[in-house]
Specification:
alpha/beta; four-stranded mixed sheet; 7 helices; 33% strand; binds S-adenosylmethionine
Length: 276
């Protein structure tokens, strides 16, 4: 990697107008054999050629332009700059994640959490992942933790990859996927552990999580929080809603995942809940 940037600069300095070489992206994300490149507007007229050079020097099949993640399904909408095939298999922590990088998020900043989840799960316990995605957080629990997992994903497109990933990682015997809104999931009083890997409106799903939880359970509760409300939030809101539903809540641990927006952080709190 030390040699990649000078090589790219060397090739493009012969082709780009003066001054633009300095604006070339110095950081990028590689997921499987797809590259996500943040590109300054000044480079717009040259984006195709720039992407081609990055692809060839780094050795990837497709280059996407980094954009926003939005909507209920937390979808990416990344422009294809080079290549065309945006489906890839990314290997991390000995887990295979197949996904369409142009449409489905896979955040490198969440790697610590994916690795941590592989360690907290225990063999035999039942985990319900309420926002499964492609199995980002629950595949590690099934593969490395030996947990039994129920993974719920609402987006039909993302769901297809979740099902494929369960097979790719050979955990069909202990991981089952449901393509539905988690609020329609019928299970009650079943989970030892619940994953709530979502942001912005996660608190709206706390009553449903408590319904799925056993009388005593651990919930990995993610949400986005304005910095001025930390560290009281997001736990205070969780505890208030839990008490309204007959549960007591105890904070076990709290971690910052990443910056979500200026002054707003994506945080995860491990909460032990128990019925009063
Ligand atoms: N949990 C993963 C992580 O933290 O890396 C990523 C999951 S992604 C941010 C959230 C997923 O939840 C999306 O795939 C979205 O489609 C799904 N989702 C959103 N609302 C849902 C709902 N009500 N029921 C089930 N899945 C939902």
């Amino acid at each position: 990697t030390q040699l990649i940037k000078p090589r790219i600069r060397e090739i493009l300095s012969r082709e780009l107008p003066e001054g633009l070489v300095e604006l070339l992206p110095k950081h990028w994300v590689q997921i499987g054999d797809v590259l996500i490149l943040p590109l300054r507007p000044e480079l717009e007229p040259y984006k195709g050629r720039i992407a081609e050079v990055y692809a060839q020097v780094i050795g990837v099949k497709t280059v996407l332009r980094k954009g926003r993640i939005s909507g209920e399904f937390r979808e990416t909408n990344y422009e294809v700059l080079y290549g065309g095939d945006t489906v890839t298999v990314h290997v991390e922590n000995r887990i295979k994640y197949k996904l369409d990088v142009a449409r489905i998020m896979f955040s490198p900043a969440n790697v610590k959490e994916r690795v941590r989840m592989a360690k907290v799960a225990k063999p035999g316990e039942l985990v319900v992942d309420m926002f499964a995605g492609i199995g980002h957080l629950s595949l590690p629990m099934a593969v490395h933790g030996g947990a039994r997992v129920i993974a719920i994903e609402k987006s039909p497109y993302t769901f297809q990859f979740l099902v494929e990933n369960i097979e790719l990682n050979r955990v069909q015997d202990r991981m089952t996927a449901y393509n539905m809104d988690n609020r329609d999931f019928p299970g009650e009083n079943i989970a030892d552990r619940i994953l709530m890997g979502y942001v912005v409106t996660t608190h709206e799903f706390i009553p449903k999580a408590l319904q799925i939880a056993k009388d005593e359970a651990v919930i990995h509760y993610h949400n986005t929080v304005p910095e001025r409300l930390m560290p009281a939030e997001p736990f205070e809101t969780f505890r208030r809603i839990a008490r309204e539903h007959g549960y007591e809540a105890e904070k076990l641990n709290e971690l910052i995942i990443k910056r979500y927006a200026p002054g707003v952080w994506h945080v995860v709190v491990d909460v032990r809940v128990f019925k009063n």
